[in-house]
Amino acid sequence: MNPAEILRSAWHGVAANPLRSVLTMLGVLISVASVILLLAVGNGSATEIQSQINSLGTTTLTVRATQQGSSSSQGLTTDVADRVAAAGLGHVAKVIPQVSTSQTVSADGTSSDSVSVIGTTADYFTLGTHEVASGSPFTDADDELASKVVVLGQTTATDLFGSARAALGSTIDIDGTAYTVKGIMAAQSSTSTADADSVVIAPLARVQRSFTGFDDISTLTVTATDADSVDAAEGELEVLLDQLLEVSSSSSSASGTQGSSDAGSGSSSRSGSSSSSSSPYQIVNQSSLLKTQAASAQSFTTLLGAVAAISLLVGGIGVTNVMLVSVTERTREIGIRKALGATRGVILAQFLVEAAVLTLGGGLLGVALALIGAHFEINGTQPVVLVWSIPLALDVSVAIGVFFGAYPAARAARMRPIQALRAE
Predict the structure, then answer these.
(1) At residue 331, does pLDDT exceed 70?
(2) What is the pTM of this model?
(3) Which residue ranges run through the membrane (predicted)?
(4) Where exactly are the structural domains of the chain?
């Protein structure tokens, strides 16, 4: 009996009981679709995390002030930012100071509450993650003159003027002072619940003069010369900030413990006292954070795939059950075929192929269902199907059919013709 005849015979066996075959395929279908979709959800989550972290800039170090100045150490100030920029650190490209406050912004009778107002320098717009979509950013001259000009986020522009285009060249009011809109930011991705597009960006000197004062700043954004220099830049920055903020050696030793505990989150800190709560600054390394998040996402994806794979075993047990029933029902048929000269190998192959056809059919339908499901968000995550998961799922489907169909097929092959023919 050639392979084509074995395949034809197996197909007839599947088609003889369509309802039973469909129900068996359904179990495999659900299993395969679950595996592919759960892997896709995990991969989509990993892709989203990587996109969010990349949006912060993998060559970027963020220095955050964690306290105001004290008798033993000072906090981050404009003077500290200027001295870091003038230090000529070998692996540091730019130093961008920022202050932030929350204000009510209004225009033409429309107002937005709790809008984030950021004061910074013109270098802020040179970061790839802070591009101006329309209009133009403010300049160094605007900062030096404390000009009353702003760049609006997409949400703020839309809330106040209805559209970004209408906002350009218009005037907004912040705390009784009029500001001219020079530009509109490109839409930003957000890593928190806050709307990153609900923002007003103005020259540092103007925000300090109007809202925060000319001393403390909240953040220093430091860019490394390239992605490979981020860790070196972080080391140089820590040494310099320890000197500028007058961090004692004993305090640095105490902060080393704190820095170690923060290593897993991609950040380090230096403390002005033995208490970590008085740390004057914290450095967040986006590159380290990316690696940590990517590893976590990969583990999450693997776990999801392993959990979903258990359902394939359940589907396989269903195949065994159905094939045993099929062998019992076709005992006389097996006896007749053996009496006519069919060998054990032919009978074995027929039932193995029959089981494989059932699971492969379920696998193909499961892949189709998974590809359709991947077009919809699942629990807030857009699935991203892993290309390799499709052929793998089909291969596993066939393997499941062969493995779980082996016992029923062997049972059919071992039947003696005389006993099989006597069966009712």
Answers:
(1) yes
(2) 0.58
(3) 21-42, 303-325, 346-373, 385-407
(4) 3-51+291-422, 77-244
